[in-house]
Amino acid sequence: MWDFLLQGFEVALTPLNLGLAFIGALLGTLFGALPGIGPINGIAILMPLAYTLGLPAESALILLAGIYTGAEYGGRISSILLNVPGDAGAVMTTLDGHPLAKKGLAGPALGLSAVSSFIGATIAIVGLTLFAPLLAAFAVNFGPAEYFALMVFAFSSLSVMMGKDPIKTLIGAVLGVMLATVGVDSGTGVMRFTGGMPELYDGIDFVVLVIGMFAISEILLMLEHDLTKGGGMAPVGRVMVSMKEVMFCKGAILRSSLIGFVIGVLPGTGASVAGAVSYTTEKRISDREGTFGHGDMRGLAAPEAANNASAAGSFVPMLTLGIPGSGTTAILLGALMLYNITPGPMLFTEQPRVAGGLIASLYIGNVMLLLLNLPLAGLFARVLTVPRWALVPGIALLAFVGVYQLHSDLMAIFLMLAIGVLGYVLRKFGFSLAPIVLGFVLGELMEENLRRALAMSGGDVAVLFQSTLAIGLWCAAVAVVVVPLVVSGWKRRRASA
Amino acid sequence: MTLRRLLTPALLSFGLLGSAQLHAATIDKPECLAPAKPGGGYDLTCRLAATTLQQTGLLDKAMMVNYMPGGIGAVAYNHVMGVRDDDPNLIVAASTGAALNLAEGKFGKYDGSEVRWLGAVATDYGAVVVRDDAPWQTLDDLMKALKKDPQGIVFGAGGTVGSQDWMKAALIAQADEVDPRKLRYVSFEGGGESLAALLGNHIQVFTGDLSEIESQLEGGKIRVLAALSDQRQEGAFADIPTAKEQGYDVEWPIWRGYYMGENVSDGAYQAWLDVFTKLVDTEEFKQARHARGLFPFTKLGTEFEQYVQERIAHFKSLSQEMGLIK
User: A113, A159, A362, A437: least buried by Cβ within 10 Å?
Assistant: First the structure.
């Protein structure tokens, strides 16, 4: 076991592989920060290059894995600075990250999220090293019924986000679920709500939805002000995060790392679900003064620790079972095939250089990402000092190019704009965007898995409550809604008595 | 992400590019359009050609790979029909799935007779996969059990009802004289999730592809009851019997090929045909095809045109039989 890791470090610490890990980390951070280019595209673009350059298998994998983990770091940058999630895992990061930036704390926010990402990823990589085969066995126990129960749990966790305007949160989440039903119905192959437009057959693309909702509506909001007046969005004060701030968030970071890792290990869920569950859990545990959503450091640390932990966790099913745990690991799997390496149950014994080298490079890449991202925080934070007349067209350019390079199709641009106008109107009416996006992501997973479970049982609903795992999740889902109500009722009664 | 790729949309909108590129007669800006997101089978199909064309130097310039996801390929098809119908530089990745979708009328008014089918260069084959502790040792065992209780066995794979993953399960049911509509079928998001569901015993039979289960063959956690190919494949697959040799006439090749716009000149079509005719015989190509888990399958030009039309007609009658279309 330790031999294998030692050998891995031997592989990963050669100058070539160290250099590749660095390049991967740097490019990954950039890909993650640019809305529209997520880890999947970054890897798909660089994979042929790695192959053409004749890199050995372990080196290519080290480069590509660096991009993957780097993108999870990078996604937070535009979330915090511009309120535009850089990738799927960073949606929840906007909730407290952007308010912090508006308070002039962009530097510390970027620093803190880098530290949280580092800790989250480290815990997950250690988990991957120690328990991978065990966890993989647990992961396959999750079938459609269990995923459905998990999604019900995630939705009921959202109740904590209801805050001051529960009706609007509910409407937002339902709107998201409705948007997720557009496209071909996976159970029957029937088209739903496509209006005969082939562009909508596959449903609304997540990137188009997020860029429209967040970036376009943000631009429209900015346009309400006189762009020539005033300077940037916010002052940039102190740049570095303090030790005190990190210690303040340590509970949030540790809890969210574990949540993120477990959710990452499950093949059917990924960074976006990890972010959502960790944020809502943390809000429930820590938010005593109602500061979450207004720039609470813990609300930023939680989803960032979780989405990085989830990225590392998704390597578990890939390396042990040969099953991709996320869209990105699916492409990495394809990369391995190119090298005639078949990942799966035999990988650790047959290809210890590759498996060990990859895991060792995750440790190294993670340290590199932290060292890279801490000093860069100050630099990135200066984006906020860019005057609005330059920033608005800049964001617009990023949004348009991001969506177009993904779709090569104008319809996607029109759809993005339409969603942007919808997002703008909703924000004007005081809606929060996160419940909509979460409703979209969770709703799709929830519906698909319900349909699958019922297809398995031939329509018998009992299948949903058969396994201990599913029953446990159902109980947890009920508990997160009921317990707070009971506790607050009990407190009220004591106060009045 | 090359600079050109980032700039092209911006330049196009200013009218700087575009018109000059659309009417050249020879292949001076080769481009392969993958009608899907990066990373899937269509991406692989484009990359297979792009990589090997560069290695062999059969094209002067490197071939660009662009993505146009949406409508299970219909968006790209519409785009080629409407906008780039005579572009001599453009080839579009296609597969058995595209022919099936055209047959099922999922591409709107188009039925596949419009575009110019260039050629297929590789294939994958369907496979019938069960857990290693499943009670069925052969396809025949499974078929007998299925016939006895069609509702008792849960099938699953990575596509919706009507997709080719479903079609594989449906054809197996049909070969067993079981109504495909009575089949219990669960559709997952891709082969990976289906495999996880199989290992977790949530489904009992996975109708996947040979290439995606290669990594599982050695681990001993699954058993492949049949390959849906015309004959046994080599190497790691040599021990897997075909469905045919077990007495069930079910074949499902997933060929990988390309088409061009309907008004592409004969000269341009011929130029591409020449390039591919040379390419498929090179060592570089054979190696790359093998590395991507694909098997030999070459049909070029007229032969391919006829093959695709014949398949579409066949799929159409199959879909009618199975009640997918009226």
Answer: A159
Please classify residue A460 by burial: count the beta carbons closer than 10 Å to its beta carbon, then call 0-12 exposed, 13-18 middle and 19+ buried: exposed
**B122 and B54 Cβ atoms separated by less than 8 Å:** no
Instruction: For an interface test with A, give the residue of B52, B81, B133, B189 to mutate (most A CBs within 10 A).
Output: B189
Please tell me the distance from the alpha carbon of residue A238 to that of residue A98, in angstroms, as a whole number.
16
How high does pLDDT run on average in chain A?
A: 87
Q: Taking residues B101-126, what's their average pLDDT?
A: 94
- Higher pLDDT, residue B251 or B22: B251
Domain range holding B33? 27-123+253-321
Enumerate the domain spans of chain A: 2-496
Residues B237 and B264 in one domain: no
CB within 8 Å of chain B, chain A residues 252-281 = 267-268
pLDDT digits (tens, 9 = 90+) for B66-108: 888 887 888 999 999 988 999 999 999 999 999 999 999 888 8
pLDDT over 60 (residue A401): yes
Q: Which residue, of B197, B216, B246, is where some domain finishes?
A: B246
**Domain co-membership, B113 together with B224:** no
Decide if pLDDT at B7 tops 60: no
Is the residue at B5 inside a domain? no
B18 pLDDT more than 60: no
* Residue with the two structure tokens 């951070």: A29
**Residues B216, A452: C-beta atoms closer than 8 Å:** no
- Tokens encoding B158: 């990575």
Alpha helices in chain B (DSSP H): 3-13, 19-22, 41-56, 74-82, 96-103, 139-148, 164-175, 190-199, 210-217, 266-279, 283-291, 302-321
- Predicted pLDDT at B22: 40
| Contact status, residue A267 vs residue A324, Cβ threshold 8 Å | yes
| Phi and psi, residue B130, nearest 5° | -130, 170
Sequential DSSP letters for B109-120: T--SSSSEEEEE
Give B242's DSSP letter: B
Which of B181, B215, B246 delimits the end of a domain?
B246
Complex confidence, ipTM:
0.85
How far is residue A299's CA from residue A199's CA, in Å, rounded to a whole number? Answer: 36
| Segment of A135-139, A251-255, A266-270 carrying the highest mean pLDDT | A251-255
> Given a cut of 60, is residue B15 above it in pLDDT?
no
Whether the CB-CB separation of A25 and A308 falls below 8 Å is answered with no
Instruction: Report the CATH number that the domain containing residue B46 is assigned in CATH.
Output: 3.40.190.150
Domain co-membership, B95 together with B165: no
Domain count of the fold of chain B: 2
A327 vs B82, more confident: B82
Question: Quick one: closest CA in A to B218, which residue?
Answer: A346
State yes or no: pLDDT of B113 exceeds 80.
Answer: yes
Q: Is B178 inside any structural domain?
A: yes
Residue B11 resides in a domain: no
Residues A8, A359: contact at Cβ < 8 Å? yes
Tell me the nearest-neighbour CA distance from A206 into chain B, angstroms. 12
Given phi > 0 = left and psi -120 to 50 = alpha, else beta, which region is A54?
Answer: left
Distance CA(A333)–CA(A351), nearest Å, equals: 14
Backbone φ and ψ for B83, nearest 5 degrees, come out as: -110, -40
